[in-house]
Amino acid sequence: MLRRYLFREVLGPFLGWVGLLCVIFFVMAFLRSTDFLLGSAVTAWDVGRFTLALLPQFLVQGIPVALLLAILLGLGRLSEDREVVAMQALGISPFEFVRGPLLLGAVLSVVLGVLANTAQPWGMRTLRQVAHDIIRRNLVSDVKPGVFHDELRDLTLYAQGVEAGGKWTNVFLFDGRDPNNPQLAFGRRGTVQNSEVLETIAFVLEDGSLHQARRDTEEYSLVTFSRADFRADVGETFFRKNNFRSNREEQTLFDVLEARDAARARNEVNLTAEVTLHWRLGQVFMPLAFAVLGTPLALSRRRGARGWSFFFTIGAYLAFYLSWRTASQFAERGEFPPWLSGQLPNLLFFAVGLLLLWRVTRRGVA
Questions:
Q1: Across-strand partners of 185?
Q2: In a shared domain, residues 99 and 177
Q3: Which tens digit of pLDDT belongs to each residue from 62-83?
Q4: Position 7 in a domain
Q5: Which residues contact 195 (CB under 8 A, 6 or more apart)?
Q6: Are 282 and 343 a contacting pair, CB within 8 Å?
Q7: DSSP E strand stretches across 176-241
């Protein structure tokens, strides 16, 4: 009965905080992506795909934080209303109060395990494709008649006329990517086509000529063509505008295990795969660590200290992230055990939580 009561006290605030955090994360993601999300070729469907692809990432990031906030607020209310004192007078140990949050934390660990190995990698890979598609179409639509377009590095495009469907007339393209062999191409017609390679696009010119000049040999050549393709790498533009690409989140647990086993088959050690594997496992156990840490803090909360819960949650998450980043960097250099790099924040939170829970048991909450 007590376990169900505590479970309900935490579940309601948890669901509310998950929704609010997802909204906050979306606003932050949208503001970081205005360069291409507010482009001239973006549609409502693009924004919808962008949001749907990021939703699993928001949930993975927000669930542990929402759980800690829910525990501090839900169980903290019991402490403020002296319900904890009354239960303690009936002989209920503070260790009994951690069972409800731990039950919810165990359920959320399963949810995180499923998300981290299905929806999150799918979402991050889909997001990469959506971002590339948006950036490509923005590049096409941003070409204006009579205006030099130089958004791509070392490539300058000029079109006298722009027709519907992204077709150009009287086009010239300057390619200065090779300083020793700059090229200048003229074409009566031109357009952009998607390449089979994700991070490249192809400028197609028709009925034109190509001028080349080698600076090292001072040779000059002129070639006429009926059709010529000029492939451009938009990877730099993508990495500059897309802030969400992460190879770590694009891989499932099975992908990481496959990379680790392949390295072991070659008698090598893939430290990146080892660290990623244990970090993914560490993510799964985050709700349990936050439940153990948050329960004694909520039981010992004093009246009127609700605002303190928000600052503590932010500080706890920052401490968790910084400890993980520090341990991961040492582990990737071979100076720290990979298994410990992923579990170190959880172990620290478990240790601090058990220490605080023992302190509350010794001193009581009154």
A1: 173, 210
A2: no
A3: 999 899 888 888 777 766 656 6
A4: yes
A5: 201, 202, 231
A6: yes
A7: 183-194, 200-214, 219-233
